[in-house]
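Whiteboard transcription, Tuesday session. T.W. wrote the structure tokens on the left side:
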């Protein structure tokens, strides 16, 4: 695996490879890799001539200084996992190269940028849109791979790609879970054993709410039941939303709808989601 720490040499490496018969598959990550990330690498390997993974803890998308400071960084281990997964190229830049003296651009992402995660983490999606735009411009990928785990992020990036006419195909990969249903996440590493046990509550809430909706129960009633359930497990529910997958507007029918949840277990904020009609 080739490792690039600077934009210039990576561009110089990729440019001569581009041709109609050649495709770059791009997997952006913030590192502390797990099986969820590796599923994206595998998907890219199956569809492209070259797979590039990036590991960059993007300061612009953090809305909480402690979360940025404590975000797990395990580069040596990540490199070994990527080699094992036969990833072709790793890009792990420094902040100076990515942001440095460049103007800090803002995006108007419309209402989708200000609800749910956007409401609890104001400015988060602007930081995501900014770094993904930079990375797409550096990498010029034919395909880019994201997880359904961050469903609203995928929605926003899809808007970005369509709005700015990026010539890239977006692929949304299914959520990889632990045996108890907890969605894999780099932040899970920060849970102590007791918190780790309680973290399965998020997936339980999603399953129970989906069952309730399919049984014809009122979503508002289900929401307050889940709130109580979380409280008994010492989990703080930030939101549980039932929305249309295509618009993120509140859903009133099962078809094409999704449940989204965010909750805090101790100091760690976790998110998850579930399609209702699957
Ligand atoms: P992150 O390193 O958290 O920024 O995640 C990098 C990419 O991996 C994003 O597109 C995530 O949605 C995706 N991802 C994170 N966790 C999972 C998971 N459990 N299953 C599948 N994809 C995931």
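and on the right, the sequence the group agreed on:
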């Amino acid at each position: 695996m080739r490792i690039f720490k600077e934009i210039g040499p990576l561009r110089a490496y990729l440019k001569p490879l581009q041709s109609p018969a050649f495709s770059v598959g791009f997997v952006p990550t913030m590192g502390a890799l797990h099986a969820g990330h590796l599923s994206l690498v595998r998907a890219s390997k199956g569809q492209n001539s070259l797979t590039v993974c990036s590991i960059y803890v993007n300061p612009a998308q953090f809305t909480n200084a402690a979360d940025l400071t404590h975000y797990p960084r395990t580069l040596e281990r990540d490199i070994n996992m990527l080699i094992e997964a036969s990833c072709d190229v790793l890009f792990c830049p420094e902040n100076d190269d990515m942001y440095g003296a460049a103007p800090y651009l803002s995006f108007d992402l419309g209402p989708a940028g200000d609800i749910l995660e956007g409401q609890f983490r104001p400015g988060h999606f602007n930081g995501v849109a900014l770094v993904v735009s930079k990375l797409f411009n550096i990498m010029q990928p034919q395909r880019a791979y994201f997880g359904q785990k961050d469903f609203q992020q995928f929605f926003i990036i899809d808007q970005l790609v369509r709005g700015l006419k990026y010539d890239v195909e977006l692929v949304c990969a299914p959520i990889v879970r632990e045996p108890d249903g907890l969605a894999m996440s780099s932040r899970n590493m920060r849970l102590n054993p007791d918190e780790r046990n309680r973290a399965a509550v998020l997936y339980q809430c999603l399953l129970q709410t989906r069952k309730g909706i399919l049984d014809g129960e009122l979503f508002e009633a289900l929401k307050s039941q889940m709130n109580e359930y979380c409280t008994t497990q010492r989990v703080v529910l930030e939101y549980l939303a039932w929305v249309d997958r295509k618009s993120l507007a509140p859903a009133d029918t099962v078809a094409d709808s999704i449940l989204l949840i965010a909750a805090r277990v101790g100091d760690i904020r976790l998110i998850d989601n579930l399609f209702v009609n699957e």
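Someone added at the bottom: The mean pLDDT is 98.
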